[in-house]
Design goal:
Layout: E1 25-30, E2 38-42, E3 48-52, E4 60-64, E5 67-68, H1 92-96, E6 97-101, H2 104-112, E7 122-124, H3 134-138, H4 141-150, E8 155-159, H5 168-174, E9 180-185, H6 191-197, H7 204-216, E10 222-228, H8 236-248, E11 254-258, H9 266-276, H10 281-288, H11 296-312, H12 358-362, H13 366-369
Parallel strand pairs: 2-6, 4-7, 7-8, 8-9, 9-10, 10-11
Antiparallel strand pairs: 1-2, 3-4, 5-6
Helix pairs in contact: 2-4, 8-11
Length: about 375
Amino acid sequence: MRWSGQAIDASRSDALPGLESNSGFVRSVTTPEFAGVTFHEVLAKSALNRVPSADGSGTYGWTINPYRGCSHACVYCFARPTHTYLEFDGGADFDQQIVVKTNVADVLHRELTKPSWDRHPVALGTNTDPYQRAEGRYRLMPGVIRALAESGTPFSILTKGTLLRRDLPLLVEAAKSVPVDLAMSIAVYDDELQQQVESGTPTTAARLATVRAVRDAGLECSVFLMPVLPYITDTVAHLDDAIGRAAAAGASSVMYSALHLRPGVKPWWFAWLERTRPDLVQRYRSMYLDNTYAPTDYRRWLADRVRPILRAHGLAVGRVDPATGSMGFSNRSVGSSTAPAALAGDGTAVGAVPIGSPLKRADPGFDRRLAPRRTEAVPTLF
């Protein structure tokens, strides 16, 4: 691994005096509670990541990733290729070799208290899930939430983890002083299929119950119906069941998009497809062999199918920030209101616009990043 030389007793002869010892890597841990998973505990040098927008606008967003790798084991996860930087593979290693930034909250606090920090909105859960199972062991998120709230920094959390409920009191308190947007990612509403494509995640029912718990706590909670799997979860029956159950759980809005497959993800997805749905391999090859996103015609077809179902269940489409992949802070800001949501012509996610939000004050590119785009697909996040 690139960081294997950072053992706690490693030293560098070319380092500045007093900094010869590099304690970035602390230890690797296995435990019977997490069979087959190894946790690599590291001391992070930074917590905030500046992320350029995927729409080519030249704007950017900010994210935090307390973990690298994810035990949710979603076959379609777009973040799998990021693990190869550590000289892991994007398959089993991504699911089982989890890097834990044990000091992330302390580092974040230092970064947020610098005079140069302008309280840009920060997104969590856009690469790997901050509430994956490891969070039950390491409890990194309470410190992260406190640091963001105390610094006056708006933030969003996107997760598949029901452990979010543990931190609801903290989130309710944080929302009194800064905009807090929460979203639960629930892509598959067939229990057998859900265990096939995302075997490490909580059940769909448990995640819907978490949406209800968030709403009962007085906070907004969106549902990410992402990715919609062509020829698998794009039937009227599945979409109606998904959107209806999200509405029944109290979802504030729904974001959706078709599966997209980055080059480093395609081998893992097609291996699963060949094992379980060989009848669809040729169709998927025609859609994705030379493309990352589903064809435009398919995305428009999906939008035409989803729109009436959303209307029938009284749900609006939320907005996704193209820089971070998070929901576009569709909540009201503290003491303000929001404009109504709308749908773009091709079904890409467009929604509520904060009025008087500190997000707009802190980030001059906020409006440009969230302008509706009619030809580009919203990224699939997990």
